[in-house]
Amino acid sequence: MPDGRAASRYHRRIAPEGSNAMTGSRFLHVPTSLLVSPLVLAIGALVLLFQFPRNLVAWNIGAWTVVAASVLLALLVPLAAWSLAKNAATRTWPRILAFSACTLYLAALAIGSIT
């Protein structure tokens, strides 16, 4: 059983003096490429759908690609919003632009599915 000094040295190594495990420097980070790639994939699949309107295989591939990309965006956009709100270092113009474009895509998809 370690004595009190060894335990306190171990504690300082894990969590330095004055830091709290709940307010540490770790934050949720959603890279810009992770936001942009499903958006580009979904837009490419929509182009495929409109380019080949009578091809059943193109519609199967395109529709499922749009669904998968949209589900991924629906999961990533709130995480990106949390990251942008909590950490000022993540508020760069490419990330804000990607977040805005993804939000606009999901809003257009939601409006299109309702009407």
Short key terms for the protein model shown above:
115 residues, mainly alpha
Tell me what the structure shows.
There is one protein chain. The protein is 73% helix and 0% strand. It is mostly helical. It is elongated, with a radius of gyration of 22 Å.
- Net shape: elongated
Write down the Rg.
22 Å
Please estimate the helix content: over 70%
Strand content: under 5%
Low-confidence stretches: none
What's the end-to-end separation, in Å?
Answer: 68 Å
Count of individual beta strands: 0
Q: Short summary of the structure?
A:
By secondary structure, the chain is mainly alpha-helical. The protein has helices spanning about 5-15, 30-50, 55-85, 95-115. The mean pLDDT is about 85.
Please give the structural blueprint.
Layout: H1 4-14, H2 32-51, H3 56-86, H4 93-114
Helix pairs in contact: 2-3, 2-4, 3-4
